[in-house]
Design a protein that fits this description.
Elements: E1 2-4, H1 10-20, E2 26-27, H2 32-40, E3 46-49, H3 50-55, H4 58-66, E4 76-81, H5 90-93, E5 97-102, H6 106-141
Parallel strand pairs: 1-2, 1-3, 3-4, 4-5
Helix pairs in contact: 2-4
Length: 174
């Protein structure tokens, strides 16, 4: 999980909470790792504070979300102040977002993170099935490889002469 929380100790506190629940995480103060993870599909999700969303390049974020692989629907957990949820469209741009109001209860954050992890696992499983399906289709469409055999391959001395000679039937005298 990426933790994008540039203000105060939020990133440290959230990271410690996730690590205590055996959820791997990484602090990303400026959101650059998030942009890379969106395109590559590597991260499991992101916990983002509203303040971080304000400071991010929204155009780059939108492009990264739109540039995800077809199977990907990157999960966001947005931490918002009670009653101060933004109405400028930045939240809708995240697409797959769970909003948790602050002050938050640790159990709520962990529940949202675990839910996002399960969703991401299902997405990756779907990606694996899609890749396998594409491989099966390719195998069905492509002709089988030619098997080298003496009958099919030309000899080193040029093309093989036709060794089939029709038999001449002798008339049997009666």
């Amino acid at each position: 999980f990426l933790v994008i929380a540039p203000a105060g100790r939020d990133a440290h506190v959230i990271s410690e909470l996730l690590k205590g629940a055996s959820i791997a995480c990484c602090d990303d103060r400026d959101g650059e790792m998030l942009l890379e993870a969106l395109v590559s599909g590597e991260a499991a999700g992101a916990i983002v504070t509203e303040e971080a969303l304000i400071h991010m390049d929204r155009q780059r974020l939108k492009e990264a979300i739109e540039g995800q692989p077809p199977w990907s629907d990157f999960p966001f957990v947005l931490l918002a102040r009670r009653g101060e949820t933004r109405s400028d469209g930045s939240i809708e741009e995240l697409v797959n977002v769970t909003i948790i109001e602050r002050p938050l209860h640790p159990a709520s954050l962990l529940s949202a993170a675990r839910s996002a992890l399960r969703a991401r696992r299902r997405q990756r499983l779907a990606a694996t099935h899609l890749e396998e399906r594409e491989r099966r289709i390719e195998r069905a469409i492509l002709p089988p490889p030619m098997i080298a055999s003496p009958l099919r391959s030309p000899s080193a001395n040029g093309p093989k002469q036709n060794s089939f000679r029709p038999r001449r039937w002798k008339r049997w005298a009666s």
